[in-house]
Design goal:
The complex is a heterodimer.
Chain A: H1 3-30, H2 40-68
Chain B: H1 2-24, H2 27-35, H3 38-51, H4 56-80, H5 84-92, H6 94-124, H7 130-146, H8 150-164, H9 167-173, H10 178-186, H11 196-209, H12 212-225, H13 232-260, H14 269-279, H15 281-314, H16 328-345, H17 352-378, H18 381-384, H19 391-416
Helix pairs in contact in B: 2-8, 2-12, 2-13, 2-15, 3-11, 3-13, 3-15, 3-17, 4-10, 4-11, 4-12, 4-13, 4-17, 5-6, 5-15, 6-7, 6-15, 6-16, 6-17, 7-16, 8-15, 9-13, 11-17, 11-19, 12-15, 14-15, 15-16, 17-19
Classes of the chains: A mainly alpha, B mainly alpha.
């Protein structure tokens, strides 16, 4: 592909991705102040639960791969 | 005369209430019956064949569990007028919001694949090739959302819900031992002990009775339908009836395979249907048709749950009452989901049965994350007002979350160290 053709494509892709990320930034900004104020303890507990569930999910994935073979 | 006047007044009141219920009912019954999706029917069929009527009590226990979880979404949707994804972003901020949305997309997409697996497997019994099933299903699903409004979609979904009831007469038709069924239904037991496989089946049965997509779907559905706070009690009744139907259907499938295929190690509902064909062609066909219907009903609900959730968060127009040009992203996402999930089924040599069973377990593992946020939301007085959770609702729901976490942990331990549990 010649540079004059690839350049607009690259620009278009950049614009497209920029728009998508700007939308995500906008969402993050919109919900920056959560209505429920969770204390540090609750936030920590939620994070621990999340990490724990992801760990269990990882184990399931390993088991799935094991059974596959 | 006075007596007849009062009787007529009571009749008019009851008729009016019934009419109101018919208008408001829908989200609860649809979500609960759709919960008996292709993965669900496969899990029940395998459970019946493996343990006979031995785990009926567990399924019956899951009825109230499903009700208590889902009725929270009715209250939350009717009070906040927001779908679940948006409610989490709003209440907990973007960090937890994105986590929940990604959970939903992952479990929804995987579950949608299992629906296509079920539908293609069911129609393959009648000689319909896989690609044709995928093509037809995608076409019909597209038609359902494009050609109409929420009410039209709901009416069509009701027809598929009614078709799911096909298992009830089938279970009576085979004349199971009533004594054995009652014994299995009301006497808790773990036939063969608490083995790793038993844990897997318990997890899979929970995963098919309550799943994260149901929480998102019912809340968004309640909002799209426009339920108000005054309608909450009817929404609860709708959910209760749905949970009753879902358990009756589950029990009937288990009774069918538990009676005719007990002790046979079956891996899928399709396999069960094929095995039933030589014994009884009608019953085999019923299992296959029911499997297709279950897969279709699951697919139309699950794909909508994700599209609604993304629409809420990204601020796209996201109602079935919108036309395609009014809500292009909503419909694009919907079609992307169904086409990509249908495409997976067409990959040659894909381990479809293993995927189906594992998806139920993955859904159960991710369930506590969704439920914890739901419980916290339902306990916030500024959001829920007088509709916040009562003490006993909290006791029940926290017990459910704890039970699911314990079971997930036990299953993971059994997966890592199989020798700990008896085989």
């Amino acid at each position: 592909m010649s540079p004059e053709h690839s350049e607009p494509l690259r620009t278009r892709l950049k614009t497209f991705l920029g728009l998508r990320f700007s939308k995500i930034r906008e969402i993050n900004e919109r919900y920056r102040n959560p209505r429920i104020k969770t204390g540090r303890g609750v936030s920590f507990a939620l994070l621990v639960l999340r990490i724990y569930l992801l760990l269990l999910l990882g184990i399931l994935f390993v088991k799935f791969i094991y059974l596959l073979h | 005369m006075n007596f007849f006047s009062r009787l007529y007044y009571k009749y008019r009141r009851a008729a009016k209430a019934f009419k109101l219920f018919l208008m408001i009912s829908g989200p609860g019954i649809i979500v609960m019956v759709a919960d008996n999706d292709a993965g669900g029917i496969t899990t029940y069929a395998a459970t019946g064949a493996k343990y006979g009527y031995g785990l009926l009590w567990f399924l019956i226990l899951l009825g109230p569990v499903a009700y208590f979880v889902q009725e929270m979404t009715v209250r939350l949707g009717a009070v906040t007028k927001r779908g679940h994804a948006e409610a989490i972003f709003d209440a907990f901020g973007p960090f937890w919001g994105w986590f929940s949305l990604l959970d939903l997309v992952l479990t929804d997409w995987l579950t949608l694949i299992t629906e296509f697996i079920g539908m293609t497997a069911a129609l393959s019994i009648f000689g319909v090739p896989r690609f044709l099933t995928v093509l037809i299903v995608c076409g019909v699903m597209g038609f359902m959302v494009i050609k109409g409004k929420y009410w039209t979609w709901e009416k069509l979904a009701f027809i598929f819900c009614a078709a799911n009831l096909i298992y009830i007469p089938a279970a009576f038709f085979i004349r199971p031992s009533v004594h054995d069924v009652i014994q299995g239904a009301f006497i808790p037991q773990f036939a063969g002990g608490l083995t790793g496989q038993m844990l897997f089946f318990l997890m899979a049965n929970i995963g098919t009775t309550i799943a994260p997509w149901m929480v998102f779907f019912q809340q968004s559905s309640v909002v799209d339908k426009g339920l108000q706070e005054k309608d909450i009690r009817w929404g609860k009744l709708d959910t209760a009836m749905g949970s009753l139907f879902t358990i009756i259907i589950a029990v009937c499938v288990i009774v069918m395979t538990g009676t005719l295929l007990k002790g046979v190690d079956i891996q899928s509902a399709e396999q069960a249907a094929r095995m039933l064909m030589p014994q009884d062609r009608i019953l085999g066909s019923i299992l296959a048709i029911g499997l297709f219907d279950a897969g279709f009903l699951g697919a139309i609900c699950i794909s909508l749950a994700s599209s609604w959730a993304f629409g809420e968060v990204f601020g796209w127009a996201h109602s079935l009452n919108n036309r395609i040009r009014e809500a292009p992203w909503f419909y694009a996402f919907y079609f992307l989901l169904i086409v990509s999930a249908g495409g997976v089924v067409l990959i040659p040599g894909a381990p479809l049965v293993l995927i189906t069973l594992f998806v139920q377990v993955i859904a159960t593992t991710l369930l506590p994350a969704a439920l914890v946020f739901l419980i916290i939301l339902l306990n916030d007085e500024t959001i829920m007002g007088k509709y916040k959770n009562t003490f006993w609702q909290n006791v029940i729901n926290i017990s459910i979350v704890t039970g699911v976490i314990i079971l997930s942990t036990l299953y993971s331990i059994s997966a890592l160290f199989p020798s700990i549990f008896p085989s």
